[in-house]
């Protein structure tokens, strides 16, 4: 992988990205959070598709990690991720609106706003279906 401290090391970025995704889907929230933080620290303000994807998983993972703890940190991370997803959806509606709606639904669920959460879940499914994302339709 070369020097992991080299800012131009794209392999390091890919490694952190895939480690975070693998940890998320394996249910390792702490490990996922660790790799997301590493990825975000090395990519900085560079906006790429993977950055938006990582923000999405960061939001979902934080909600999973802090569910039931009523954590301020979780809510802050979720708000920041939703803000980033709004920006992404504004630039690419078909690719990010379903993800935005899903994050909003999870945030509403965390806040015990179940009626709003259900509406956001439905909007996420509808958006995924409209975009042809069969695997994201719930």
Short note summarizing the structure:
With 138 residues, the protein is an all-alpha fold. It has helices spanning 10-26, 29-43, 49-66, 72-91, 93-110, 114-131.
Any descriptors?
mainly alpha, 138 residues, globular, 6 helices, 0% strand
Please characterize this protein's 3D structure.
With about 140 residues, the protein is mainly alpha-helical. The chain has six helices and no strands. Helix 4 (about 70-90) runs antiparallel to helix 5 (about 95-110). The protein is globular.
How does the overall form come out from the CA principal axes?
globular
The major β-sheet equals: none
What amount of the residues lies in strands?
under 5%
Helix count, DSSP H or I runs of 4 or more residues: 6
What is the H/E order?
HHHHHH
What is the fold's blueprint, element by element?
Elements: H1 10-26, H2 29-43, H3 49-66, H4 72-91, H5 93-110, H6 114-131
Helix pairs in contact: 1-2, 1-3, 2-3, 3-4, 3-5, 4-5, 5-6
């Amino acid at each position: 992988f070369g020097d992991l401290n080299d800012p131009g090391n794209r392999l390091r970025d890919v490694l952190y990205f895939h480690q975070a995704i693998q940890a998320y889907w394996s249910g390792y929230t702490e490990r996922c959070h660790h790799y997301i933080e590493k990825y975000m620290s090395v990519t900085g303000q560079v906006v790429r598709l993977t950055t938006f994807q990582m923000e999405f998983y960061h939001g979902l993972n934080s909600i999973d990690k802090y569910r039931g703890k009523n954590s301020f940190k979780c809510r802050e991370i979720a708000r920041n991720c939703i803000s980033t997803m709004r920006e992404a959806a504004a630039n690419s509606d078909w690719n990010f609106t379903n993800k935005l709606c899903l994050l909003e639904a999870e945030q509403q669920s965390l806040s015990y706003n179940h009626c709003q959460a259900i509406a956001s879940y439905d909007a996420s499914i509808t958006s995924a279906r409209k975009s042809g994302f069969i695997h994201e339709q719930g």
